[in-house]
Amino acid sequence: MKSIIEFFESIDPVLAAFYATSFTWALTALGAALVFLFKTLHRGMLDGMLGFTGGVMVAASFWSLLNPAIEMSETMYPSMPWMPAAVGFLVGALFLFALDKIMPHLHINFREDEKEGVKTEWHKTTLLVLAITMHNIPEGLAVGVLFGAASLGMDGATIAGAVALAIGIGIQNFPEGFAVAMPLRRQGVSRRKSFWYGQLSAIVEPIFGVLGALAVIYMQPILPFALAFAAGAMIYVVVEEVIPETQRDKFTDIAVLGFIGGFLIMMILDVSLSDIQI
Predict the structure, then answer these.
(1) Exposed, middle or buried by CB within 10 Å (0-12, 13-18, 19+), for 161?
(2) 205 within 8 A of 143, measured Cβ to Cβ
(3) Domain-embedded: residue 186
(4) Looking at the predicted structure, is the pLDDT value of residue 107 above 70?
(5) Which of 227, 201, 220 is nearest to 106 (CA)?
(6) Which domain holds residue 218?
């Protein structure tokens, strides 16, 4: 692990963000590829996977994003160290709120007549993929912003922490890819198309990872705002989408245990990797 961190420290931060978010996308594709091996997915397992995803995202929002944002703000905005984190968090949540109202999408486990966003005649498959794509926008942004912040030597931001965030998001993307592909397969979509749509839902992560890194490198004063923005967007996704998707059947306890497991893994990853001395 030390050699991985050293490698990311030795390359351009934008390239590092691209590599890291390509890794998270690849794990989504790997998860989606399980559709070639399995015909069905037990509903309890799906809810557990979604719960795990939510746990990772909540833990990452604090340890990897909000906490570094607050530490930076104590130096950059000493008179109001709470302000960047609060404003960024609020704007990030409002951004996803607006996206949720505009972009047509359908949550996993929801009926077709419960689709959200502007009215459209798009196929259910497209709406499902768009819903997961919304999950992945703040994830890619978070990784990119943290790599950009670490490259500038900002308080609270380290390459090790950025690597930990990428690993955590990658781990939760693996079951997420399967959770997208399998419902599509269950609706009669071919295995190849189910895999294609499953991996496609995460292609936005490298795009927003690179954009996030570029933004903070060239606009340093927005760093704590950008980190908190990603955190607000991720928390909105968890509360508005991930948690409701796990509460539609009798497996809510499994979803809760999955959430706790995801939270613990992300917390341990962030704390343990951040302590590695290079």
Answers:
(1) buried
(2) yes
(3) yes
(4) no
(5) 201
(6) 41-274
